[in-house]
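We keep the chain:
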Amino acid sequence: MAGNTFGDIFRVTTWGESHGTAVGATIDGCPPSLDLTPEIIQRDLDRRRPGTGGAASPRQEPDRVEILSGVFEHKTTGTPISLAIFNKDAHSKSYDHLRDIFRPGHGDITYLKKYGIRDHRGGGRASARETAARVAAGAVARLLLTRHGIEVSAYTIALGDICAAERDMDIIGQNKLCCPDAKAARRMEEKIKATRSRGDTLGGIVEIRTRNCPPGLGEPVFDKLDGALAGALMSIGAVKGVEIGAGFAAAAHTGSQNNDSITPTGFASNRSGGILAGISNGDDIVARVAVKPIPSIGRQQDTINLAGEAVTIRIGGRHDISAIPRIIPVCEAMVCLTLADFLLRQQAIQDSGMARIAGDDCR
């Protein structure tokens, strides 16, 4: 199946299905001599794994990563890194009744139309289970960014119709929803309980902020950094919208309102979200994603079966009430993978320039 590889220089291929033996990732192009152990990757995986967060599924996957190649004596070797996460708590029989029925909001019908076959067990390749592999690969990319002082973090700014009014980053780790507003977080928890009792689900908004990104990352014109970030974040199954900086609000601004004035000490504001003309400008890169509600709901829905007949469906089983907060490390991973790739591209440009300079000196 095409479309499973991400990146140009720092390349990641994910593999596996929700109810298969394992999910995993192969990374090619990672520089050598990065300190890498399973424990480093595990920190991010533990934030994403099932059974965590106030809106999470009761599926209990340990999500223990195994490094199969590309690391020697706890250091990357420059050769392909293979990561595997074995599925331990898949209840495939729970999906037997869905073999011939298309679930609304899922990829069941589109996968069948494209390939003529589908894995009905938990959504197969289209399942959010695939994102465990992204998070594992993103943890490796984060190591490269950390070497350059770049930090990527994400947090919840909306769940359903409840929005965070504050941005107190010190309290993100103090509530299950990773929200920077304590009052909003409490209201979100109450909203989850009420929504669960109705057999329904919730969407929300996650903000991702990158600090200390150097200026100059991004390629004109068809490989802009903001375009690549938008594509990376939109590749997450639950994400239905992406904005950078002021985003859609910029449409209501005048030019004088939207421009970021430049002073001798830097930009006076950051409505550009740290990117101008598709190239990072040195300010914080700020992106937001709109996360749709989980489509597996306990309420009755209309659909069709394989014969094209109208049927109704009520989905039971073990499902999240919202993709938030488990989607947060997935968003961070996709930003880390994008920035790692563009960082290595920029280094190649700079190295090429230095080579020319050295060549000129020799003439």
